[in-house]
Design goal:
The protein contains eight helices and 19 strands. The longest helix has 18 residues.
Length: 360
């Protein structure tokens, strides 16, 4: 088995004595050519972790190894790590080409042109940072980091300063570029959609610890606990009674991949319902109380005898406020469920992509 490019073990950092650690005994691995996203709520320790790996913050405990070399005590400039900061940190008094060449081993016009071409900024070398757009500044910052020929690239909230329309397109372009170069990337973000679409693997953090690591599909389909389920997507929770692999709910039966017995609480994503207008008055089990048109789809809030559920439906559903509806759990297998059973927390599954339960 190939050894990871980056290994961080038991990293901890406490800023105020007597207060909880910002990062608490954190360990992670990053493989060559892989994009790993650290994601979690503000203040969970994501950026502090990134800064300890970069050498910009001193770890109280733990070690960092890069490509077989322990770099825990090395100065930042000797670690062979590039970093793109949230505000890009471009030098306003240098033109774009000189910004790109700032940390490059070979400082030539050809080098600047090569990396600017790589990020789609051909011909902009003579402009200054305030003469180009935010998206272009982000690419200049990336080109500068790549020109320094690092072994690892760190991205700290790299797309947060871009508007929504530009963010998605830039994110995919940068991902394509990074995968083409084979660069290993550790990215920090609080944006769940960004993590799911940009990373090969995701590590979800809370209170300085990593709770679960997996592919975007694994994190979304089989979250290890209710916090991860709620943080990594919109959620509905339904009470049910499990009888082996069959669970009875107010909206019909759900099939569980792991047999359980007794009261359970099921996580059902908004897209895992089937919804239609009731054929006759009185035949429905819910009523539309809110709706949000999104163009490609519609999100409805459905009241089912006092149970408020969020439901995503296709663009053509065309239901109206006040419509009586029939709401069911979709027949295809759904996302994961977490369950409380006899005082113990267990996890049951019903997801097409998840056949092996993660360890608890």
């Amino acid at each position: 088995m190939t050894a990871p490019l980056l290994t961080a073990r038991n990293l901890s950092r406490r800023f105020i004595p007597g207060q909880p650690s910002v990062v608490d005994d954190l360990s992670l691995d990053l493989n060559k050519g892989e994009i790993l996203a650290l994601v979690g709520p503000s203040g969970c320790g994501k950026s502090t972790t990134l800064r300890m790996i970069a050498g910009l913050e001193t770890a109280d405990t733990g070690s960092v190894t890069l490509d077989g070399q322990t770099i825990t005590d090395l100065a930042p400039e000797k670690r062979g790590i590039g970093m793109v900061f949230q505000d890009y940190a471009l030098f306003p008094y240098l033109d774009v080409a000189d910004n790109v060449l700032f940390g490059a081993p070979e400082k030539s016009a050809d080098t600047a042109a090569r990396y600017l071409n790589m990020v789609g900024l051909k011909g902009l070398g003579q402009r200054f940072p305030d003469e180009i757009s935010g998206g272009q500044q982000q690419r200049v910052a990336l080109a500068r980091s790549l020109a320094a020929e690092p072994r690892l690239l760190l991205l700290d909230e790299p797309f947060s300063n871009l508007d929504a329309a530009l963010r998605s397109a830039t994110r995919q372009e940068i991902r394509r570029l990074l995968k083409a170069t084979g660069m290993a990337v550790l990215c920090v973000t609080h944006d769940q959609e960004e993590a799911l679409s940009f990373a090969d693997r995701i590590a979800v953090m809370r209170d300085g610890r990593i709770l679960q690591t997996g592919t975007p599909f694994e994190i979304y389909d089989t979250p290890a606990d209710p916090f991860i389920a709620g943080f990594m997507g919109r959620t509905n929770f339904l009470d049910g009674i499990a009888h082996g692999t069959v669970c009875e709910t107010p909206l019909g039966r759900a099939i569980l991949m792991a047999p359980m017995t007794g009261p359970v609480k099921l996580l059902v994503r908004p897209e895992h319902f089937s919804l239609r207008r009731a054929q006759e008055p009185g035949q429905g089990n819910g009523r539309i109380v809110e709706m949000e048109f999104k163009g490609h789809s519609v999100t409805y809030r459905v009241d089912c005898a006092g149970l408020s559920l969020q439901v995503d439906a296709a663009h053509g559903s065309r239901l109206k406020l006040g419509d009586e509806v029939e709401l069911r759990i979709a027949e295809q297998q759904m996302s994961s469920y977490w369950a409380r059973n006899g005082g113990d927390i267990a996890v049951a599954y019903s997801a097409p992509r998840a056949t092996v339960p993660p360890s608890l």
